[in-house]
Amino acid sequence: MIKKGMRRQIVLHYIFVVFVALLLVEVIFLLAIRTYYYDSVYSKITTHIGTAEDFLKYEISGERSPNQLQKLLDFFEMDYTELQVLTQDGNMLISSTGFQPDRTITTSDVPEAVGGSVGRWVGRQPGTNESVMAVSKLVHINGRETYVIRYVTSMERIDSDLLNLTLVSIGIGSAVMAIVVLFSFGLANSIVKPLKNITAVSAQMAKGKFTTRIKGDYRYEIGDLASTLNYMADEIIRSNQIKDDFISSISHELRTPLTSIKGWSETLVSGGYDPEETKLGMGIISKESDRLIGLVEEILDFSKLQQNEMKLSMGRVDIKVLLQETILNIWAKAEKKRIHLLLECDETFFIKGDANRLKQVFLNLVDNAVKFSPEDSSIVLSAHRLAGSELAVVVRDSGIGISEAHLGRVRDRFFQVDALNGGTGLGLAISQQIVELHGGKLEMDSELGKGTQVTVILPMTEELPPEAPQAENLL
Questions:
Q1: Are 148 and 113 in contact (CB under 8 A)?
Q2: First and final CA of the chain: distance in angstroms?
Q3: Measured in whole angstroms, how far is the alpha carbon of residue 327 from the centre of its chain?
Q4: pLDDT one-digit tens code per residue, 360-389
Q5: Rg for the chain (alpha carbons), in Å?
Q6: Is the dihedral of CA 8, 11, 14, 15 positive or negative?
Q7: CB atoms near residue 148 (< 10 Å)
């Protein structure tokens, strides 16, 4: 007995479908063969009746007599068939077998013949219980005498042949079913065995063994499932590696400012320093505190975005003004590397968005450009209208660029092209999600050694009407 499971269901359903199909085919085939044989016998008798009637015309006349009935037998007689001559009431007058004609025929073929058609009846012969077919036809002798000619032929041989054919069909059907059972087990195993393998490997993955892989050249949907699970394991390993790298990086990022804050705090508490040195220490503490706050806020922003809890304060934003403010905020950092920040935006563009969050995006993009650009280079910020009602804000630098291998992953969370430059690896991931919350998209193009171009595409809104000029007070 097959254990309950997918294998059993596949085998049973497959066998059931094939069995029903075979049963229908065999039943239809056997019925067609039986109908063909029975119709052939009936057709042969009716043809003989028609031929005999043609010869009968004008050959028999006079009153009813035994000689006249014998001539009817001679004209209509057939080999291997009993011929009976009946009255219209079904009384037997004479029979080719010589039995005493003392009984009345009550089968349905006689009334049909009296009604004018060729009667046909199939059933069991009274007394012998033999399977027979009876065919009856009304004949007229010189327009005066009317008889019912009735043929009775045995169907035992035909039924025997049909029985043998049925047994052969059953045998063939059984052989086919045996082959089907074998094939169904093979089919079930081809599905169940890979699934069992996949289930076993999935159980190992569920226990944290993500290095295990589904092996085997599976095809179709099972192959897709195996590939998906293997890909999932690779992604989990990569995510865990990124998480570990992030923890290591953020630990270092937090330790550095905390060390500076703790060191200068202990130094200042000990006292005995001049005001200039105290001022320097307080400045370092303040700077490192701001750095810690920035790291924590970045992590909190990312957490809010992941949980869809970040709320935007939407309003009409002047992109040109926002880019000018961004340049002013980054100017001091760029000045230390003698990097020139250029703004190319002659028109005034307005969009509907959160000014603070969009400024956070542009600050992150420009800060990255400054971080990875050489000294005495330039960073260009530009804004221009695209086809339709979209605005493109571009940040272009001539820095170290990003390799093609890293370009597709640079916006992944916790990913850092160069971990030595510090940071959490969340800046671009947060920026992209903020842009997407505004209904826009962030695109990156870069070539190693030649620089990077980041394009932020945002939907535009109608421009604000120009303000009326204020009249000067000449008094």
A1: yes
A2: 110
A3: 50
A4: 899 889 988 898 888 889 999 999 988 778
A5: 51
A6: negative
A7: 25
DSSP letters, 174-239, are HHHHHHHHHHHHHHHHHHHHHHHHHHHHHHHHHTT-TT----S---HHHHHHHHHHHHHHHHHHHH
Instruction: Look up residue 314 and give its two tokens.
Output: 């939407």
* Integer Cα distance of 147 and 140 in angstroms: 7
Partners of 199 in the β-ladder: none
Token pair, residue 338, equals 């003698």
Residues 6+ apart with CB under 8 A from 152: 81, 82, 83, 84, 125, 132, 133, 134
pLDDT number for residue 291: 72
Which residues touch 63 (CB under 8 Å, ≥6 apart)? none
**130 token code pair:** 């033999």
Residue 397: CB atoms within 10 Å: 26
Q: How far apart are CA 213 and CA 230, in angstroms?
A: 6
- Structure letter (DSSP) for residue 120: E
Contacts of 212 (CB under 8 A, 6+ apart): 201, 204, 205, 233
C-alpha angle 148-151-154 in degrees, rounded to nearest 5: 155
Token readout for 342 is 């250029």
What pTM does this model have?
0.49
Cβ distance 312 to 298 under 8 Å?
Answer: no
- Please state the φ and ψ torsions of residue 234, each to the nearest 5 degrees: -60, -40
Residue with token string 């200042």: 268
For residue 136, give the nearest of 119, 123, 122 by alpha carbon: 119
Six-digit token pair at 144?
């005066």
DSSP state of 154: E
The amino acid sitting at 133 is M
CA distance 95 to 112: 20
Residue 140 predicted with pLDDT over 60:
yes
CB neighbour class for 390 (10 Å; exposed up to 12, middle 13-18, buried from 19): middle
- What residues are paired with 394 via a beta bridge? 382, 455
Contact between residue 57 and residue 72 where contact means Cβ atoms under 8 Å apart? no
pLDDT band at 100 (very low <50, low <70, confident <90, very high): low
Q: Are strands 378-385 and 340-344 parallel, antiparallel or unpaired?
A: parallel
> Is 123 in contact with 108 (CB distance < 8 Å)?
no
